[in-house]
Specification:
Order of helices and strands of chain A: EHEEHEHEHEEEHEHE
Largest sheet of chain A: 7 strands, mixed
Shape of chain A: globular
Oligomer: homodimer
Pfam families (chains A, B): F420_oxidored
Protein name (chains A, B): Pyrroline-5-carboxylate reductase catalytic N-terminal domain-containing protein
GO molecular function (chains A, B): oxidoreductase activity
Distance between the termini of chain A: 29 Å
Number of helices of chain A: 6
Keywords (chains A, B): Oxidoreductase
CATH class of chain A: Alpha Beta
CATH topology of chain A: Rossmann fold
């Protein structure tokens, strides 16, 4: 059993919390008023929007040392919905890994809309969580948590592949905003 | 009815040729021995691997002037399968558009494995062709050809979105090579 901390209690945080609990793992969910409560999980999921990451690090970087830290963000320019705000050859996950050298950073859950995490379905297709990271043990541990909770987990490669995962997340968001796909759908992996 | 030229008679060229013909449009398929035969289609699909594009342009750039030109390539480093060979902030399609200023360049069919073009199915999901481009009429014309042939066509945005389409294509190829998805599957849009 793994104890999982989820920072951020929005749609994604809540949906992931249900998945974790369903798999028989324990979960603590932090909302924005829990700033002074330290995280106690061995796996910490940062379920906040990309612009809020720096504040989380300012508040909690020391608490994340040694832990598996999961970045789920899509670093879009949310005003234009027409570009990412991270360097073209980088990713939000790579930035996070640089800021947390003593954590094992994973990218996951950025290509799954909240409704598809909650339902376990992308349309008629079982929801797959793509996981990228450089620490094989951390990836396997997180994949186990995801699959115990009823979703499919697929190893998407090293952390540098977060660049492609964030491109998928970005494209999928533009398709949803443009009403080309529903928020209950998107890219299903089959 | 549109007359479509497809340069490249590999798996993708053949599969796309069948789609075009099925939709009641006419198609001419060029293989590598047809170098001296000029293209006559109003829409020209470059169904060759990325490294072969420059030779096609050397042979035929003047023939492509004024036409809709469709780039289906995934510009991977095929030795390492670990990176793209185009600039991080660019795409193969953007390069092509720069080299063909008098053509209307579209990106399409780079996120669909040949088997899914041929069968019309990504696993159990109908195959969707994502189309990016800056010329709305060209996009609509090509979407019409694709949908007449029995596949779904979705407007993925301006040609700059080819960067994300190529990231999807790259990621999908790494997942297939890593046996995480079958060549009859991949990302289905639902």
């Amino acid at each position: 059993m793994t104890h999982v901390s989820i920072i951020g209690s929005g749609n994604m945080g809540q949906a992931i919390s249900s998945v974790v609990a369903r798999g028989g793992n324990t979960v603590e969910l932090f909302n924005s008023t829990d700033k002074d409560k330290p995280v106690t999980g061995d796996v910490v999921i940062l379920a906040v929007p990309y612009p809020a990451i720096d504040q989380v690090l300012a508040d909690r970087a020391d608490q994340l040392s040694g832990k598996v830290v999961v970045d789920i963000t899509n670093p879009l320019n949310f005003e234009t919905f027409d570009s990412l705000v991270v360097p073209a050859d980088g990713s939000a996950a790579a930035e996070l890994a640089e800021k947390l050298p003593d954590s094992k950073v994973l990218k996951a859950f950025n290509t799954t809309f909240a409704a598809t995490v909650a339902s376990g379905q992308v349309g008629e297709v079982p929801t797959t969580v793509l996981i990228a990271g450089d620490d094989a043990d951390a990836k396997a541990q997180f994949a186990g948590i995801v699959s115990a909770g009823g979703l499919k987990a697929v190893d998407a490669g090293p952390l540098k592949r977060a660049r492609e995962l964030e491109a998928v997340g970005f494209l999928q968001l533009t398709l949803a905003v443009g009403e080309k796909v529903a928020w209950t759908g998107g890219f299903g992996l089959v």
